[in-house]
Amino acid sequence: MFGPFKATSSLSGGLLWKIPWRLSAPQKARQRRRLRMVDSVIATVDKALANKGFSAKALERWKEEMPTEQEMLPRDKYTMFDKKEKRYRKGVHSESF
C-alpha cells in the first residue's frame, strides 16, 4: 500500500486465519463427547418422565427420528448441511454459521 503503513499478512486475509477442512483427532473426540452428552440428557429426561408416569411427544419424536452418537455416520457427526457450500456440507468447527 501507499504511505507509511503497509498491509500485514493478517490484514490482507492471508493463510493465518484459515480453518483447516479436516478436524483433528482431539476435535473429533470433543465432538463425540458433546454428542454423547446430548444422548445422556435425552435418556435422563426420558427416565425422569417415565418415573413420574409422564411422556413428552417431542421427546418421543426425538428418540424415533434422531440417531444416537454410536448410530451416526462420520459424515453426520463431523459435518452439517449448508446450502451455500459447494457440496452442501461444511465442518462443524467452522466459525461462520
If helices are DSSP runs of H or I spanning 4 or more residues, what is the number of helices?
3
Determine the oligomeric state from the structure. Answer: single chain
Give the proportion of residues in helices.
40-55%
What is the total tally of β strands?
Answer: 2
Q: Give the overall silhouette.
A: elongated
Strand content: 5-15%
Topology order in helix (H) and strand (E) letters: HHHEE
The helix/strand class is mainly alpha
Query: What is the spatial order of strands in the main beta sheet?
Result: 1-2
Strand count, sense and barrel status of the largest sheet are: 2 strands, antiparallel
Nearest-integer average pLDDT: 85
* Radius of gyration based on Cα positions: 21 Å
Stretches with pLDDT under 50, minimum 5 residues: none
The rounded distance between the terminal residues' Cα atoms is 32 Å
Blueprint (SSEs and pairs):
Layout: H1 25-52, H2 57-65, H3 74-78, E1 79-81, E2 89-91
Structure explained in plain terms:
This protein has 97 residues and is mainly alpha-helical. Helices cover 43% and strands 6% of the residues. It has helices spanning 25-52, 57-65, 74-78; strands at 79-81, 89-91. Strands 1-2 form a two-stranded antiparallel sheet. The relative contact order is 0.13. The model has no long low-confidence stretch (mean pLDDT 85).
